[in-house]
Amino acid sequence: MRIAVGIKWVPNTQAVRFDPETGTLIRKGIPSIVNPHDLPAIEMALRLRDAVGGEVIAFTMAPPPAVKGLELALGMGVDRAILITDRVFAGADTLATSYVLANAISKVEREYGKVDLVVFGQETIDSSTAHIPGQVASWLDWPYVYYVKDIQVLGDGRIRVVRELEDYIEEYEIELPAVLGIAVRALKPRPVSLYNKLRAKLNKDTIVVWGNSELKLDPRCVGLKGSPTIVAKTIDMPEVPRKKEVYKPRDPRDAARWIVSKIVEDEKLRELLVKKLWGG
């Protein structure tokens, strides 16, 4: 079974800033990490490979520093990795991003053989749209299931997936190839192995880099030009001074009274809450 797992290199901060001219994320000076929601997806792919054989390929569309994220995936045990990077891909919304990723998966099939399964994390911490898995499935015309917590290979090109929603659990039998979004609490990711990291370092072919010269996509369909979604305007969030206070209440009602009293006393906090709750 050949499994492709998509990961994203995201800013490791909640203080995300946008370029007011382009409406795109400013990454300069902000440390980045592998999107934490993608780690259970990597683990799911590795467990399936360990159970039935095959290989796991990690891929990401990102600037060149994202190679560090692919190295982490290789350290977890992924067999090979693909960095999709090109200035023409910059500034893409989810539609343009998913278009590039879907075409990259098609190239994986041409280069390495048939892809049976593509898995993604539940969502990303920098945008939380959860659009990419479904959009990639749409471009490929493959079945798609979201919030997956368990996968069982049935044979004959079929799998059974279990997804857990808020109030109930659903089971589906689907034909491969397919795209899945893995629930963030589905599995505990394994640690990075020093052996796997050294193996990846010694094998220079473990990570390949593809730009648009390899994918050969119409520049009008990728990056900012291919993105119908735009950020029309950005606003600066007001800075709220943080004052740490510790209070140990006797009971929950006492705690509620104390919190209300603090809100009443603080005029700026009161105004901020009014704006947040009622749009005033």
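Second entry:
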Amino acid sequence: MKFLGPLDIAVVGCGVAGQAAAALLAETGHRVTIYERFAEPQPVGAGLLLQPTGLAVLRQLGLADAAIAGGARVAGLEARTHRGRSILDLRYADLHPLAFGVGILRATLFELLHDRLAKSPAKLVTGAEIVDVDKTHLVEAGGARHGPFDLIIAADGAHSQLRSRLLPHARAPIYPWGCIWTTTPDLAGIGAAGLLRQRVHGTTLMMGLLPTGHDKLTMYWSMPMRALGRSRTIDLEAWRRTATALWPEAAPIIDHAANAGDVARATYRHVSLTHWNAGPVLFIGDAAHGTSPQLGQGANLGLMDAWVLAQTLAAAPDLLSAFLHFERRRVPPVRYYRNASHLLTPFFQSRLAPLGWLRDAVMGPACHVPALRAMMGTTLAGTRRGWFSATKLGDDGCFPLDAV
């Protein structure tokens, strides 16, 4: 069978999925140019949790050890109510004794990927805000054109301009809840156990602390969208009182964050595409399937997109076959995590108080039912292929990419 020869490929967006895709594709022989709208590429967002899936792709890029060293090993997830009742208690070791996640600052992961991109044959063009595609050419906001390209990869994030332009009927509503976040020293030793920890009160108050390396934590606090507008001032003193009442043990961390005043705002979209491409333009990462961060899968799904795309192009006879095969491989896990996130989020972020009561009554006991605990654990680890199947971790506790 004749396979695709080297392609001229444009990647729009210099985030996690875009940089991984550019490096992987360039090193399999394609001529790759990645376009970034900022003059100096930079990370956007808080700390994140690398799952065994994302770590497997980083391992292929030669970055896993550096990511582990630059972040913090995470053994599992613990969530409790303001009264201390357990509602989630999951461990990667339930899946394999050697399995773990890694909490890492997005800036740290970005730097690792950016250095890796610089060592690849891919070309980086900065200060180019791509807003449209004209057949096989990219079009900048100022009218400049780039191309032609055989394949254009849109990896420009959940708020993708290319998706809005090329797929105007795609569903991508903004979640009614977002968060404020910051990175702080672990002044209370909360990250010492290596757990992502959360505290909740009903469905309107939620705080999380994720170890992100070297006695650092990323802290996030749930807030409704109406309070997150750029014109709205966040009352950090009122937040300090509310957060301390919710989680007294974290008071030193909360005080430090309130005194520093260095908090950022984050909003999210629920992106659902009926198909992943528009002509020669393929959407990956959050541009294709952004969700709330409730399941901690965004960066991992984007890394998996990049890996599968590189493998698919290497084995396809033509671009259409590659697109179809790529979708067949990515749709089942992406659909599962998109739907699971959409279903789960209102139990933690909404004005629907009965959902909080149901969560508090059911989720804790469910963690002790073997079949449900297994499903919840594989969901956390990113290994689900759908509602009824999951990929088993290898003998070394790592995710087997050849099973994707």
